[in-house]
Design a protein that fits this description.
Elements (H helix, E strand, L loop, with lengths): L1 E2 L1 H9 L4 E4 L10 E6 L5 E14 L1 H8 L7 H7 L6 E17 H6 L14 H12 L4
Parallel strand pairs: 1-3
Antiparallel strand pairs: 2-5, 3-4, 4-5
Length: about 140
C-alpha cells in the first residue's frame, strides 16, 4: 500500500491509526500489508495488519474517527470530494522496518514496482520482503 511520507510518520508515531481510502480490495480486514512511503523516503518502511475496516459516508467516518486519522478536515474533505463512500482501515501491529526496502531495491532485488494504491504479493514475495525488513543493517 502506498502512503505519503508525512502520513507514514504519523502511523509510526501512533497519532494515525486508520488509513483512509476511497476504494479497497475485497476481504482487506485481516490482511498483512507493507507500507510504501511514497514521498521523500520512496521505500517500504513499515509493515502492519489491517485489523478492521470502517465503512460509511465521509461525514460518518470523520465524525467517528477524526481523532485518529492524522489528517486535517480540509485534507479529508479534499480527498473525499464527490465520494459517497469512505473507508477507514484500522492498522495494528505497526512495525517499522529495521532495514527499509528502497525503490531501487524493490525494482532490482524483488522485481516489483511500488503500487499506485494497492499491490497483491505472492506469499514468496511477502516472505522475502518481511525477511529483508526484519534484518538489521550491517
Amino acid at each position: 500500500m502506498s502512503i505519503k511520507t508525512k502520513f507514514v510518520k504519523s502511523i509510526i508515531d501512533g497519532s494515525k491509526t486508520y488509513e483512509l481510502r476511497r476504494k479497497i480490495p475485497r476481504d482487506v480486514a485481516g490482511m498483512k500489508i507493507f507500507i510504501y512511503s511514497s514521498g521523500v523516503e520512496r521505500a517500504i518502511t513499515v509493515h502492519a495488519d489491517v485489523s478492521e475496516v470502517a465503512t460509511g459516508t465521509p461525514e460518518e467516518i470523520w465524525k467517528k474517527h477524526s481523532a485518529v486519522l492524522g489528517i486535517t478536515y480540509s485534507e479529508f474533505s479534499d480527498y473525499f470530494a464527490g465520494a459517497e463512500v469512505a473507508y477507514a482501515l484500522e492498522l495494528s501491529n505497526v512495525t517499522r522496518s529495521r532495514r527499509p526496502v528502497t525503490l531501487e531495491q524493490l525494482r532490482n532485488d524483488f522485481g516489483l514496482e511500488p503500487p499506485q494504491s494497492w499491490r497483491y504479493l505472492t506469499s514468496d514475495s511477502y516472505e522475502k520482503l518481511l525477511k529483508h525488513a526484519a534484518c538489521p543493517e550491517f
